Amino acid sequence: MSLDPATMRPAPTGARFDAVYGPAAGGRQVRARLQHPDPPPGAAASEWTLRAGDFDVLGHVNNAVTWGLLDEEVERRLPGHRVASAEVEYREPIPGGRAVTVLVTGGEGMLRLWALTDGGTLACTALARVEPGAPPHRR
């Protein structure tokens, strides 16, 4: 990933990157389109408490922490299930000092999650296929 040095936001990788790694892509192109829907009305809401160690060097929530939130929500809402596969879309960074509300829907076989900052900004979404069984760390 490339970062714009002025904004510290993701940026195009550029010609040098394409010259080195382009042949390995075999003509395939990555498209960064958001596919997850916005949260529906009536989704169950809870607060997400962040810790100092949840932040990267830029002061944003580390992506691995978001995946941990997904595991916790599956364990809390669907006891005896684990994440079988999942995808997370990151829309906006979650900066420190902000309250985060988590909205969740789902049931048998599927769980959808939305994380919103205190201003109502949708920061990330997750879609998980779940299956019966203990998470790997609990076996």
From TrEMBL:
Q: Which SUPFAM superfamilies match?
A: Thioesterase/thiol ester dehydrase-isomerase
Q: Highest taxon of the source?
A: Bacteria
Identify the InterPro entries for this entry: Acyl-ACP_TE_C, HotDog_dom_sf
TM helices/strands, residue ranges: none
Residues in domain Acyl-ACP thioesterase-like C-terminal? Answer: 46-105
Name of the protein in question? Acyl-ACP thioesterase-like C-terminal domain-containing protein
Originating species: Acidiferrimicrobium australe
Q: What is the lineage of its organism?
A: Bacteria, Bacillati, Actinomycetota, Acidimicrobiia, Acidimicrobiales
